[in-house]
Design brief:
single chain, alpha/beta, Aspartate Aminotransferase, domain 1, five-stranded mixed sheet, three-stranded antiparallel sheet, 16 helices, binds pyridoxal-5'-phosphate
Length: about 450
């Protein structure tokens, strides 16, 4: 008999979870104004809000914490991290930052100006925010297949080269500071970009004299998908694939809270010394001196170790198979989920799940609340609340996809937890016909409303 798959690590330290009753949850979610961001973490049994900074560090990472060098300038921890980044990504120059959006802030301060255009594959929201904040425009060039949740395509994060070339052709190169390639593409559902597409994007950009930036939060998960799904990569190690991927980038921004498995941190990688000097000035202003940039020495040490562990095949296989395990269990129950399964989360199609709730009553948020009431599981809405209002008309924007995201933290939960989540959602699915009333907004902020919005139940 073939041996079944099992996790590539064992557990040394545990953190108790608190179970609650349906009555308690009814009270708590009402007090939280039906906004799951307002819940206290003790009121949550399984927390699938995000995979950002929520991973479990290894014994080796914790031991590195003890060796942190907290010198203001020239700390050994800085050099340890510099060497890890050079070894894994190939970038000679780097700047530490406190998280991914800080890396964007520093780098874009050096490169993006008013009126610029920044093409890419479904820019992440903070990336788009930092582009638009500088009165520049983000242009989405993702392949159309990305927006069909039922279509099986191995690399839904890919860039449509025709869309990209159109941008390059119709605009002067001086107006395009770079193209940003997000690997994996978070906004499209944690979907990977193929090595072929990475090469093609790079070749096209070079033809027009444009720089290539990788938004790299989940670069290791992207490399895993290349190994598993792309012709010619099966026998290469993840680290070899990662090195090959980064050959096609001029620079990278990193949220280390994702694939580097630390709770806080980020960095910028660069090849060009002049850019490094320019960005260093902004780093000193916004983040801290160039040898710590918003991170403590111990955190840089844990990050250096995390980069190494995060690019090991056994770890990645455990992680991505766990996400797929949850996806498959939901599919077994006929629950409408996005396929193929992404690297970090399963996306439930709330429009198909709750067809009797009008779209004006926030279907995905209604589903998130129902799942919480059923089980204490906290997911997150990726739908109309997140899409916010049109800045000009102030009307609600109804996005193409209305999704509930179940984001899996790294090395935190077991497959029994996945089973619990799947059955909880199945129970909600079985009573979906009875769920006819959604939610309405009581108060909201003028921008980024989903974090603080207050809602009440429709009667
Ligand atoms: C999380 C993320 C960011 C922003 O990083 P933070 O560490 O949350 O500031 C940028 N891009 C992508 C693709 C991300 O997933």
């Amino acid at each position: 008999m073939e041996l079944p798959f099992a996790e590539s690590y064992k557990i040394k330290m545990v953190e108790p979870l608190r179970k609650s009753t349906r009555e308690e949850r009814e009270e708590w979610i009402k007090a939280a104004r039906y906004n799951l961001f307002n819940l206290k973490s003790e009121q949550v049994f399984i927390d699938l809000l995000t995979d950002s900074g929520t991973g479990a560090m290894s014994d080796r990472q914790w031991s590195q914490m003890m060796l942190g060098d907290e010198s203001y300038a020239g700390a050994s921890s800085y050099y340890k991290l510099k060497e890890a980044i050079r070894k894994i990504t190939g970038f000679e120059y780097f700047l530490p930052t406190h998280q991914g959006r800080a890396a964007e802030n520093v780098l874009f301060s050096a490169l993006v100006k008013e009126g610029d255009l920044v093409p890419g594959n479904a820019h992440f929201d903070t990336t788009k925010g930092h582009i638009e904040f500088r009165k520049a425009t983000a242009i989405d060039c993702t392949i159309d297949e990305a927006y069909d949740t039922t279509l099986e395509h191995p690399f839904k994060g890919n860039v449509d080269l025709n869309k990209l070339e159109k941008v390059f052709k119709e605009n002067p190169a001086e107006k395009i500071p770079f193209i940003v390639l997000t690997i994996t593409c978070n906004t499209a559902g944690g979907q990977p970009v193929s090595m072929q597409n990475i090469k093609d994007v790079h070749a096209l950009a070079k033809k027009y004299g444009i720089k290539v930036l990788f938004d790299s939060a989940r670069f290791a998960e992207n490399a895993y998908f290349i190994k598993i799904r792309e012709e010619g990569y099966r026998d290469k190690s993840i680290k070899e694939i990662v090195r090959e991927m980064f050959q096609y980038a001029d620079m990278m921004t990193m949220s280390s809270k994702k694939d580097a498995i630390v709770n806080m941190g980020g960095f910028i990688g660069m090849r060009d010394e002049e850019l490094f000097r320019k960005a260093s000035t902004f780093n000193i202003m916004f983040e801290g001196f160039i040898t710590y940039g918003g991170m403590s020495g111990r955190d840089m040490n844990a990050l250096a170790q995390g980069l190494d562990e995060g690019t090991e095949f056994d770890y990645l296989e455990t992680r991505i198979k766990q996400v797929a395990y949850l996806g498959q269990r939901l599919r077994d129950f006929d629950i409408p989920v996005q396929v193929p399964f992404g690297g970090h989360a399963i996306f439930v199609n709330a429009r198909k799940f709750l067809p009797h709730v009008p779209k004006e009553e926030f279907q995905a948020q209604t589903l998130a609340v129902e799942l919480y009431l059923e089980s204490g599981v906290r997911g997150v809405e990726i739908g109309t609340l997140l899409a916010d209002r049109d800045p000009v008309t102030r009307e609600n924007r109804f996005p193409e996809l209305e999704l509930l995201r179940l984001t899996i933290p790294r090395r935190v939960y077991t497959n029994n937890h996945m089973e619990y989540i799947a059955v909880a959602l199945k129970n909600v699915y079985e009573r979906r016909e009875k769920i006819t009333n959604g939610l309405k907004i009581v108060s909201e902020a003028p921008i980024m409303r989903h974090f603080t919005v207050e809602l009440e139940k429709m009667d």
